[in-house]
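Fold this sequence, please.
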Amino acid sequence: MPDLVANNLLGLAEHAALTPMVAYRIDRDGHPYVPVGDGGIVQGVHLGDSVFATDGDHVAPGVSLVHGDPAARFALTAFSCIGNEVVVRSGLATGAVGRVVGKRGESGRVIVSLPDDVLADLLPGDQFSVRSVGQGFVPEGLPEGVAVMNVDPELFALLPFGAGDDVLSVALAGTLPSKVCGNGIGRPAQMWDVDLAVVADSPDLAGRDMRLGELWAVENLDVRHNMGYRRDWVTIGLICHGGSPMPGHGPGLVPMVTGPRSAFRFELQDAEAVPALTESVLAALPSRVR
């Protein structure tokens, strides 16, 4: 395949925000709540944590990056890929290095994991550079009809995917039916995650926890263009943020691989297995910071 293009993008640390004049949202049972942790600079949440461990809303592990210009913000979200290297360019934490671990839709956010001491030094408005690369990536041996998106090629090589015999094997935390897909349906998968409308005791989880950094599959979901239902299709993605009390919302899945169900071989992991994406996996990626 042709060489991929890398692009340096500018993101700014988001300030936590509330809807003007209305400090609360309404949960699935009609009760008001304050959306703590929805964007901004979130401390104390890490890859491997349960998506149901915090009493918050869409809580992500790290800092959310945005941009004041809407076109640049959409480009930041669309071009950034899981595993891309990120460098703090202003403020007390200048020079610190992190990695993209998720992204969200609506106006667009890129989620960056950084050490706790670095997050403590950040302020909203601090500048970050993202070395975006990965959109258009086609791994060697990829089965016909399967598409890959939103993942740095160097990270893809470290995740539990394996191509051979015209199938793509993958180790998964679990599978879910497409009926749980909420916010994000009908949206472009390169710029949007899909919220999974599940809670800790949802029957569709069959008693299993869901953790940040795990790979999950959604049956009968095609995300090659806008995300939507397609029979006998499957999409595999990374869990990037926590649950939500809002109806139609929940843990966020960033699509990585999508294709005909017949093109995949799934291996379901034990509940105690280490998530696919951890800080140690990110640390194994080569750095280009001088």
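Residues 70-79 form the longest helix (10 residues). Residues 215 and 238 are 5 Å apart (CA to CA).
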